[in-house]
Design a protein that fits this description.
alpha/beta, binds magnesium ion, 6-stranded mixed β-sheet, binds adenosine monophosphate, 7 helices
């Protein structure tokens, strides 16, 4: 059995950046850029006034004050009709192009209208370049403004718009198929008969996928039957990630590892020293699936056999699948946020597996407390639903005393 750290390292080692695709600019938010973007404009496109005021020749205000004849008015979007010469000025608005001859702008706040057609400016601080941005000072046409690997947040979307980038090559969100396995499962919109229970993992994992930035494909429920599993797994192998739940332990109907291997999914590991989540299975599937779809150049499908117990499924998703998904999209292996907290009550950790125990996190007078919840184990979603995160207790026999510092992964 390998450690959690080793399991994560092996998964990350097999996670390859997905192939890029082109999307319209408004859909590029939160994606990772997959191309160099070059500006097709100078910014600003002209020498530009940074304030509302008067375009002047700085030398005219050498004495700190001048009365100048107003020869023009330039607003943003219009062009100057005449040049500024000694003794004259043009009224100018923020963003408007500086008239020829002018080399500074005096803010409108430093003016008082002496008479019709003339203005008195009082500003001791005028030098060439004052309140002007020169053409191309921010970026020049032909310059690379964004590089592959950049996360596209709203500022980058604005910049892409500024340089006229309408269609953008990005790394798409991973498509993640979710297949619940088990003869005992019924769809959640049905009442479970004797010996049956509802498929809670399917909807839970699909929402976890969405939360982690992926596009879920719900493959429903497969019976513990070789032929049924083969058909559904084949569909799932078309995607970037296939998540199965159940059927990976040591029961007589735990057929998943065998079926996956038969279908050419290469096992990387089975079983991790983790509580809950020990039965976790991971493998990769390279190359085409015989369904006719074009899979040339597609990175291998990452295949996870998650344990059937809902909390084990959730924990292994958060610890292993989520970081893998973020590597596929170029974000690096990001998991749940980790914080430190003070343990609120004693906790006895036993055994050679790293443990993650559900906890309520309480902020109290600037102190963050983590209180382990009363919990019935890895099938107990009901009490897990009251938890805010998972406390990490490293492998090894040890009683963690109330008041000690612990790491908590926040949901
Ligand atoms: P298994 O790993 O298939 O032996 O399943 C372990 C436990 O998880 C069993 O009690 C299953 O009934 C339960 N289980 C498996 N799959 C699901 C599911 N999709 N939703 C809820 N419980 C499940
Ligand atoms: Mg089962």
């Amino acid at each position: 059995m390998i450690t959690l750290d080793e399991a994560l390292a092996r998964v990350i080692a097999h996670a390859q950046l997905l192939r890029s695709s082109t999307v319209p600019l408004p859909e590029a938010l939160d994606r990772v850029l997959a191309e160099y973007v070059v500006s097709d404009v100078d910014s600003p496109p002209h020498d530009k006034a940074m304030v509302d005021g008067f375009a002047v020749i700085a030398a005219d205000l050498a004495g700190g004050e001048a009365t100048l004849r107003i020869v023009d008015e330039v607003t943003a979007g219009s062009l100057p009709r005449c040049a500024v010469e000694r003794g004259t000025t043009s009224r100018i608005m923020t963003g408007a192009p500086l008239p020829e001859g002018a080399d500074a702008v005096v803010m409108v706040e430093y003016s008082n209208s002496a008479s019709e057609g003339a203005v008195t400016l009082v500003d001791a601080d005028v030098a060439p370049g004052r309140h002007i941005t020169r053409r191309g000072a921010v970026m020049q046409r032909g310059a690379v403004v964004l590089s592959p690997g950049t996360q596209l947040r709203h500022a980058q979307i604005g910049l892409l718009a500024e340089v006229g980038k309408c269609d953008v090559a990005v790394i798409p969100p991973p498509r993640v198929a979710v297949l619940a396995t088990g003869n005992e499962l019924v769809p959640y919109d049905q009442f479970p008969g004797a010996g049956k229970l509802r498929n809670s993992n399917g909807p839970m994992l699909c929402s976890a996928v969405r939360r982690a930035g992926g596009v879920p494909l719900d493959l429903g429920i497969a019976a513990d039957d070789r032929a049924v599993l083969v058909g559904r797994v084949r569909e799932g192998l078309e995607t970037d990630v296939l998540l199965l739940s159940g059927g990976v332990s040591a029961g007589v109907l735990d057929l998943v590892p065998g079926v996956l291997q038969e279908m050419g999914v290469r096992e990387i590991f089975h079983k991790v020293a983790l509580k809950p989540g020990k039965p976790l299975w991971f493998g990769v599937h390279e190359g085409a699936v015989d369904t006719g779809a074009d899979s040339s150049g597609k990175p291998p499908t990452l295949v996870f056999g998650l344990p059937g117990n809902p909390v084990s499924s959730l924990v292994t998703f958060e610890l292993i699948v989520r970081p893998a998904m973020s590597v596929l999209t170029g974000h690096g292996p990001q998991g749940l946020a980790r914080v430190t907290a003070v343990l609120a009550s004693d906790f006895a950790q036993r055994g050679e597996r790293d443990a993650f125990y559900p906890a309520k996190v309480i902020e109290n007078d600037g102190e963050r407390l983590a209180e382990p919840i009363a919990w019935q184990g890895s099938a107990d979603l009901r009490n897990l639903a009251g938890a805010d995160g998972l406390i990490f207790f490293p492998a090894g026999d040890r009683t963690h005393a109330a008041g000690s510092e612990v790491t908590v992964l926040l949901f």
